[in-house]
From TrEMBL:
Organism placement in taxonomy: Eukaryota, Viridiplantae, Streptophyta, Embryophyta, Tracheophyta
Record keywords, A-Z: Repeat, Transferase, Ubl conjugation pathway
Top-rank taxon, per record: Eukaryota
Protein name (record): RING-type E3 ubiquitin transferase
Repeat positions for ARM: 418-462, 546-589
Length: 685
């Protein structure tokens, strides 16, 4: 069995080998080197070497096998320095050989890239084999009293390292030329021959839709890391995307993209089992963006732990243990997991540590070939949506769903190709499994993030179709979640906020989702309601739908911070009008809101709590102010927000403190209210 080296952040064709420790025992070093050589020899049975460098890989494995024969004959008596030096260099080189063999047998979508890097890979093999020979020359073989056969093996390895030619095969050179020709045709605005594209994919072993999907995923996932090769990377991405759309009649091994709160992204079983609370900094209670680990093994947000240390604290915030050092290390694995979780749940993630251009967030393609390839693929899918049979229409909707979620440029090409009217028409399809509806609404959701698409959706009667997706009884629950998220994006335009609110039962369907849907459905419905409330005419509609008692129930029963935060945001917006404030008071929400403010919650939740209490105190009458004045924990929570809350929370807290103090001063001669602390009062409004 092949034991592949595991480096979670290793970029393809990089070799993070490590020199052995200078104080390592010779026997331990030799045993480790023998183990590495055996791992390399295990690749002999691999049938997954890329066609372009399979011969070079097998020649290298043969050389490592010969080296293993020699190493197994070494016996120690006296250990000269040159022996340790030679073994250390061999150990270092064989590590790099293992990384290279691992790259040549990758099955995660790097086949096109490895084909185009064939010359570079061949040169790596050449250099590494010669490094092994150089290290062998350092070994004092004569002083080791080796058998004659072992000496002959050493000479053979050294001689073959100098004589063996590591070249790219003729077939690989032809395939590379074909790829470059196809990219050139794209750049000229031509559509390449289907047979030519298929020939390239057949050569590299991309036989199925799922194989091509992995190729695209590889290029997207590496666009930040491989900055120097961005243009070629983008061109190959366009090539693979076009090929996936055009060449494959069916989707094999399809794993439906998971449903997300305001969009879509990759996910897996691990992410599904995690809660956002797992990623919160113990100090700030916010999801970490730059997690670091201190010597106790506990992880914190970098800026939070730095602030802790700079305040003179030399202890672990979690355990209270005294630290011998305030140094910390980045937790890269956790950061990657948090990024994936945020993408999967529609949570913004800003990585300030990276300045590299990210092609998933740009409105332009990374190369001319990528631009033309994407436009050709968009035209092909638009034609299939309009003129294809049901199978191809569903297939095209799924491809649009995938392409539109990846970057801004893809969305632009698809909108320009005219896919939106055809996708809206698919929403009314009545097939049994509901997959066509789900793919169509998911694609519309992704496209609704593009500025031009909002008008096209509205102009083609899309609001009615999308609201219909919210109805209870739609076969695919995921379609309802996508529809709610789509309404959120459309509500960013004032005109559409008004139109959606006026659409029969739109708001009542969203409120029903808050009550009955799963976590993601609740969150999508809440943010959609929040967006619609930006139009003042929708306030009474939300109140009439019975949203307030339902939101209070969410505050009491939900254990998900994100849902609680969104519920508070909706309530705070409703409380800005007297009718909303009175409805909230009638439901008895004040005690629960005060409790939330006094507890350890994310800063966004605390901000909405303060805004809600301020709005109720202004619009709810004097009884509300009396209740707040008499709440023993409230003033401490408000003063805490002055220094630790967000900028908005701090201003609102200052305004609420002012309201409470002014009320106390007016009634101080007759009121039995609790005396308010004055020494910390801050006028922040």
């Amino acid at each position: 069995m092949i034991q592949k080296p595991y480096i979670p952040t290793r970029r393809i064709l990089t070799f993070p080998a490590v020199h052995p420790c200078e104080t390592i025992a010779p026997a331990t070093l030799l045993a480790s080197l023998v183990c590495l050589c055996r791992s390399a020899c295990d690749y002999r049975s691999s049938k997954s070497f890329g066609s372009s460098n399979a011969r070079n890989a097998r020649q290298t494995i043969r050389q490592v096998g010969n080296l293993l024969i020699l190493l197994q004959e070494i016996r120690f008596s006296a250990v000269p320095d040159s022996l340790l030096l030679g073994l250390s260099e061999l150990h270092f080189t064989v590590q790099k050989v293992l990384y290279l063999l691992d790259d040549c047998t990758r099955d995660d979508g790097a086949r096109i890239w490895m084909l185009m890097e064939s010359d570079r890979v061949a040169n790596h093999f050449r250099v590494l084999v010669r490094e092994m020979a150089t290290a062998l020359e350092v070994l004092p073989l004569e002083a080791l009293d080796l058998p004659r056969e072992a000496m002959e093996v050493a000479e053979l390895v050294t001689r073959q390292a100098r004589e063996t030619r590591f070249e790219v095969g003729a077939d690989a050179q032809i395939a590379m030329a074909d790829v470059l020709a196809i990219l050139s045709r794209f750049e000229s605005g031509e559509v390449p021959d289907r047979g030519e594209v298929k020939r390239v994919l057949d050569y590299i072993g991309v036989k199925k839709w799922s194989d091509c999907y992995r190729e695209i995923e590889f290029h997207y996932s590496n666009n930040k890391e491989m900055r120097r090769e961005l243009q070629l990377l983008s061109s190959l991405l366009g090539f693979a995307s076009y090929a996936r759309c055009v060449l494959f009649d069916s989707v094999d091994g399809k794993s439906d993209p998971p449903v997300h709160c305001e969009g879509e992204s990759r996910n897996d079983e691990l992410l599904g089992s995690l809660d956002g609370d797992d990623f919160r900094c113990p100090i700030s209670l916010e999801i970490m963006r730059d997690p670091v680990t201190i010597e106790t093994g506990h992880t914190y947000e970098r800026c939070s732990i730095l602030k802790w240390f700079r305040a003179g604290n030399a202890t672990c915030p979690n355990t209270g243990n005294k630290l011998s050092s305030t140094e910390f290390v980045p937790n890269v694995a956790l950061k990657q997991l948090i990024q994936r979780y945020c993408l999967a749940n529609g949570i913004p993630f800003v990585d300030s540590s990276r300045n590299a251009r990210d092609i998933t967030r740009t409105a332009a393609a990374g190369s001319l070939a990528a631009e033309c390839a994407m436009k050709a693929a968009a035209r092909f899918l638009a034609d299939k949506l309009l003129g294809g049979d049901y199978k191809w229409r569903n297939r095209s909707a799924y491809e649009i769903r995938l392409l539109s979620k990846t970057n801004i440029f893809n969305r632009s090409c698809l909108v320009e190709a005219g896919v939106i009217p055809a996708l809206l028409e698919l929403l009314s399809s009545e097939e049994e499994d509901g997959s066509c509806q789900e793919n169509a609404i998911a694609a519309i959701l992704n496209l609704s993030k593009h500025s031009r698409s909002k008008a096209l959706i509205a102009e083609n009667g899309g609001l009615r179709f999308i609201v219909d997706m919210l109805k209870k009884g739609v076969k695919v629950e995921a379609a309802r979640q996508h529809a709610a998220a789509t309404l959120f994006y459309l509500s960013s335009v004032e005109e559409y906020r008004k139109l959606i609110g006026e659409t029969t039962e739109a708001i009542s369907y969203l409120v029903e989702m808050v009550k009955e849907a799963n976590y993601r459905g609740k969150k999508n419905a809440l943010v959609a309601i929040y967006g619609l409330l930006m139009h003042s005419g929708n306030h009474w509609r939300v109140l009439a739908s019975g949203a307030v008692p339902l939101l209070l129930d969410v505050l009491i029963s939900s254990d998900r911070h994100e849902v609680v935060t969104d519920s508070l945001a909706v309530l705070a917006t409703l409380a800005e009008k007297p009718e909303g404030a009175k409805a909230i008071i009638r439901c008895g929400a004040l005690p629960q809101v005060v409790r939330i403010l006094a507890a350890a919650n994310p800063r966004a939740a605390m901000e909405h709590c303060v805004c809600l209490l301020l709005a109720i105190s202004i619009n709810g009458g004097e009884d509300v102010v009396v209740y707040l004045v008499r709440s023993p924990s409230l003033m401490g929570s408000l003063y805490s927000q002055l220094s630790e809350g967000t900028s908005r929370a701090s201003k609102k807290a200052g305004a609420l403190i002012k309201v409470l103090h002014e009320f106390y001063e007016r009634t101080s001669s007759t009121s039995k209210a609790t005396v308010l602390p004055r020494e910390r009062f801050v006028h922040a409004w």
